[in-house]
Amino acid sequence: MTISNQELSHSLSLSLQMLIFSALILGTGFLILSPDLASHKETATRADPRPWEVSGGDLTPRLGSGKTTEKDYLSITRLDHGTDDRAIFTRRTNLKAADLPFLEYKITGRNPGTTFYLIWRRQENPQEVFNSRIDWAGDHASVSHLANNPDWQGTITEVGLDVYGDLRQQTPIIEYLSLKPSQPSLMARAVWDEWTVFRNWTQRSAHHLRGTLKPPILSPTMAAAAWAGLALLLLFFVARIKGQSSLTSYIIAVAIPWIALDLLWQSNLSKQLKETKYLFADKTQHEKHMASWEPDLYQYANHLKSKVLPEPGAKIFLLDNEPHRTYRRLRLQYFLLPHNIFNFDKYPRTSSIKPGDYLIALGEIEGLQFNSNAGTLNWHGRALPARLLEESTLASVYQYEGRP
Amino acid sequence: MTDSWIVVVIGLVLPWLTGSAWTYWLTSQSSNWHPAAVLGHGYLLGIFTTTVIMRVFQLAGLQQSFLGTSLCLTALAAAAALMIYLKPGQSRIKHAEPRLPEWQQAAIFLLLAMIAVRYLTIFQELALRPLFPWDAWMNWAPKAVVWFHYNELVPFASQKVWLAAPAEAHTYIEGAKNAWKYPITVPLVQLWGMLVLNSSDNSMIYLPWICIALASGSALYGHLKLASVHSLLAIAAVYTYLNIPFINVHSALAGYADLWVTVAFGAGIFALAEWARNRQWPYLLLALIMAIFCSQLKIPGLIMGAIVIAAFLLTLFPLRKRLWLALFIAASLGLLSLYFVGINATLPYVGEITVSRSAIVVPYIGAFDVAYHDVTDAVIETMFLMINWNLLWYIFLASTLAIVLTPEVLKNHRPEFFALVTTLGFLYFVYYFTERFMFAEDFTQINRALMYSTPVAVFLMAGALNTFLKLRQTQNHSLS
Fold first, then answer.
1. Alpha-carbon gap, residue B301 to B184, rounded angstroms
2. Among partner residues A206, A262, A342, which is closest to B249 by beta-carbon distance?
3. Does B236 sit within 8 Å of A313, measured CB to CB?
4. Which residues pair with A376 in a beta bridge?
5. What is the distance between the alpha carbons of residues B383 and B393, in angstroms, rounded to a whole number?
6. Could you tell me the sign of the dihedral formed by the alpha carbons of A3, A8, A14, A20, in that order?
7. How far apart, in whole angstroms, are the C-alpha atoms of residue B346 and residue B353?
8. Listed residue (A350, A394, A343, A400) closest to A370, CA to CA
9. Omega of the bond leading into B455 within 30 degrees of 0 (cis)
């Protein structure tokens, strides 16, 4: 690869030009040919619908608390405790969903601990509340393509925000919500926001990485491939016209889209690391477990290990309402290691259980009850002599003492 | 804190040093060796050796301990040093490469910086987060945690055996039904980390999941340099491979076995390609060791190890059209007879082998009903629409076309090409013709299986591009 600096700069410049042309052609083509944008035109009830905008300060708290700021924004100060920690702020309205397929919003000071939903009621069935998750791509104004949601239809009578999770001592500020008519620029922004939205690790992350939170309007991978592909085609035609081709130009035309996609991935990894640091940095392993998923199971397993169960070695049957392996029973089994646990049953396996074996019934198990008078564990007409060692909201622990 | 870091470093460096010393001695018996390949293979060989030592301890009835295993590793490193002293290696031939122009130096720096940023991010993620991914704590870590508690490799068994066993037998079972019979190398790697840290609950146990990725990248670079690939192209290949999102996620969310199969298979094929090129036995030996390593990591690793062996057998046949025609006819007849007649046999010590139109039974691997399932939508989505692989499979498709159409390139990269086509063919069969199709449709498994082929795909593409460039250069020279 004896390529001079001059040759490189020529190749680089040519590739960049073709990549720019490629991006312009593809971007314009996508927006012109977008079936979504075409569908907006077809379904709109007016030729020139007007946007509907509400400032955060004009939203009415229905649950939780907020404070109106000097700029008429809404600062969320408290979520109400319940099954979930939650706040709801809404505003009554009257608009046609089909006229306003995009939501533009600006909410600052968010963190991955809270989840925001746009919620709405429809005139057709006023009792029902519909929702669409509002993803977090940063503190800047973002756009969401609401028309993708099959419930965004009919006459909308109330719009608002439903906030779940943990504010983490922060006060997210809702600057505005704006429902907007169809515009190509909004579609472009919605695509970009989908690509840059923060995607927290899930248990599916080690199996597949979609690159977006939900099936996207446009796949970033396919867009990058098309970008590179068209640039290659343009380079090929330029080479044919000029009568000379440069392999370096072709390589650069592929390398730049690759790197762009790589930077998009790095950006999410960096956001993830920030979140991971928030959750786990400067903590002991015990504190990390308490900050991680299922701290209740972790804590309960520690309690069982230290207070209820003997030294590891005894056989333990872990029962769960589902006969199949479920996440929580497997997780409890892991936290209880190095105890020797069999976790495949819903009810005690009478043919195999031996005196001295333990049973842990995780949560409520349909039909399984302990009869303290008889000292038996009963289910569907069957009984097993057992001693209740521990009972809590999470689980009950028994020991089989053998048949008299 | 400082003490624990020293122990962690020892736990990482000792296997690496031992493996590298032996790899250096082996490969430097000829002048055709490269330090990056030595370091890359060195870690994989070293960590595999560590697990073999632990198995020997078990067979000898000795307790598992950090001291015992580390003393053995030190002794092996000393033995390698002695061999190097008694039979010193040769100086390596450096392939002539003119001083790189500034732009190439800058490009290399940029690519290395992007790799560094990525792995610094991954390191922090791994170090901070407690063991996270589902299969890691359900299938792989439990054995290690239990063995760490007892300091011995107590047995894990099926439901039937567990239910019949008395408590005193210390027979264990895992959360997934068949996990008890999974190969034990990955839990042994975890056990080594636990012995090093004297804890079964510490994120640093999983540092090898980063080390193997980096070692694999190093081996890739070394082998590309051995194949006279230009430095910039070799570094670009390493960047391409090491920064693939799905590879990254298996280092960051460590604990699965799939990255291990990927790197062992990749290193095996890299070494085999070198063997095919120069016929130097140390590379064949490394390839065969990596084939064994594959087979000890995960049940599909048996197939991946077998592919390395098959690729080796391929290198024994000269590239003659008649021979290939005869092989092709024999293979076709074999497939036709399997389709129409089938096989059903029970071999002593091996078990039942069945191949028919409706079912396949393979000893140690499993029984599968054979029926066509169209999972093309899921395959397209995962390979070409999701961000798992960046643009790898798009480029791979274009490259494969170019390779097939250029006999000169195909001739130079036969083992890699064969390994890749066979791997993808195997995955095609598994996900289109067995009940595992559901794991393609829900994306739980297909990407982890596709990952096995990625180092070889990148190796092949970089090697092929290099051959193209050289062919072009030769054509230009002959024209001028």
1. 12
2. A206
3. no
4. A371, A385
5. 6
6. positive
7. 6
8. A400
9. no
Q: Are A250 and B376 in contact (CB under 8 A)?
A: no
* Six-digit token string for A246: 């440069």
Q: Which two tokens stand for residue B451?
A: 């990952």
Residues 6+ apart with CB under 8 A from B394: A225, A228, A229, B384
CB nearest to A261's CB, from B172, B249, B390: B390
- The whole-model pTM stands at 0.94
A91 with A72: CB under 8 angstroms?
no
Find how far residue B23's CA is from the centre of its chain: 17
Please judge whether B167 and A344 are an interchain contact, meaning their C-beta atoms are less than 8 angstroms apart.
no
Sign of the CA dihedral running A189, A190, A192, A198: positive
Q: Which residues of A touch B448 (CB under 8 A)?
A: 206-207
Query: Residue for token digits 């632990």?
Result: B54
CA angle centred on B423, ends B421 and B429, rounded to 5° = 100
Contacts of B136 in chain A (CB under 8 A): 206
Q: Which tokens belong to A127?
A: 């009792």
A234: number of Cβ within 10 Å: 19
**For the segment B27-75, what is each residue's pLDDT rounded down to a tens digit?**
999 888 999 999 999 999 999 999 999 999 999 999 999 999 999 999 9
> How many Cβ atoms from other residues are within 10 Å of residue B19's Cβ?
28
pLDDT, residue B38, reads 97
> Which residues contact residue B348 at a Cβ distance below 8 angstroms, ignoring those fewer than 6 apart?
none
Contact residues, chain A, for B382 at CB < 8 Å? 208
**How much is the average pLDDT of B173-182?**
90
Distance in angstroms (rounded) separating the CA atoms of residues B232 and B110: 11
B155 Cα distance to chain centroid: 27
Q: Is B210 exposed, middle or buried (0-12, 13-18, 19+ CB in 10 A)?
A: buried
Q: Which two tokens stand for residue A269?
A: 């990894």
CA distance B51 to chain A (A): 21
**What ipTM did this prediction achieve?**
0.92
Can you list the pairs that B329-336 forms with residues at least 24 positions away whose Cβ atoms lie under 8 Å?
Answer: none
B245-252 vs A247-280: helix axis angle to the nearest 10?
Answer: 20
- Which helix or strand (DSSP H or E) is residue A193 part of? helix A184-196
Strands A155-165 and A114-122, sheet pairing: antiparallel
Q: Are A359 and A377 in contact (CB under 8 A)?
A: yes
Nearest to B177 by CA among A348, A366, A364, A330: A330
Distances from the Cα of A51 to the Cα of A92, A177, A351, B225, angstroms: 15, 10, 70, 61
H-helix segments, A292-398: 295-303, 327-336
Shortest CA distance to B273 belongs to which of B219, B237, B208, B231? B219
The DSSP code for A51 is P
Q: How far apart are CA A241 and CA A237, in angstroms?
A: 6
Q: Are B259 and B213 in contact (CB under 8 A)?
A: yes
Instruction: Return per-residue pLDDT of chain A as tens, 404 residues.
Output: 567 777 788 889 999 999 999 999 999 999 999 999 999 999 999 888 999 999 999 999 999 999 999 999 999 999 998 778 899 999 999 999 999 999 999 999 999 989 999 999 999 989 999 999 998 888 999 999 999 999 999 999 999 999 999 999 889 999 999 999 999 999 999 999 999 999 999 999 999 999 998 889 999 999 999 999 999 999 999 999 988 778 889 999 999 999 999 999 999 999 999 999 999 999 999 999 999 989 999 999 999 999 999 999 999 999 999 877 789 999 999 999 999 999 998 999 999 999 999 999 999 999 999 999 999 999 999 999 999 999 999 999 999 988 76
- Write the residue in A210, A280, A344 that is nearest to B129 by C-beta: A280
E strand or H helix that includes residue A96: strand A86-96
A88 CB burial (10 A radius; 0-12, 13-18, 19+): buried
Nearest-Cα residue of chain A relative to residue B145: A338
